[in-house]
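Methods: holo model generation. Sequences were used as deposited, without trimming of termini or removal of tags, and paired with ligand SMILES retrieved from the corresponding compound records. Each pair was processed once, and we did not select among multiple samples. The sequence and LV4SOB2L SMILES for this entry were:
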Amino acid sequence: MTDVVFIEALEIDALIGIYDWERRVRQTLSFDIEMEFDNRIPAAADDIALTLNYKAVSKRLIEYVQSTGFGLVETLAERCAEIILNEFDVRRVRLKLSKPGAVRGARAVGVRIERSRDP
Ligand SMILES: Nc1nc2c(c(=O)[nH]1)N=C([C@H](O)[C@@H](O)CO)CN2
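and the model returned the structure below.
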């Protein structure tokens, strides 16, 4: 990836996990996202309409993640990457999904994936 729009430490509460107690309480997840784009295009016109709007992506993910209830962080990460690639003008995305406090002794655990529109 060369130029990216990033979203760092986006915190969203969701129902997630494989254990009984995790099906009853929401946990705070944290997302770090990098989305490939050409910085020169919006910069040339200084125009929000020509860029990848990180606020719009964040709002869409917040709306989606809050409505989910997956067992695995893997599943949620894949669905979020699909939303970004399918609904926004993004060809490649890196997404790290962290579940803070899920493992005693670790600050966070989770997955990091990289997906693109073209195989
Ligand atoms: N690779 C994964 N391992 C584990 C997951 C997961 O989603 N992906 N989930 C759990 C539990 O839900 C855990 O987060 C509870 O502390 C365990 N391992």
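The mean pLDDT is 96.
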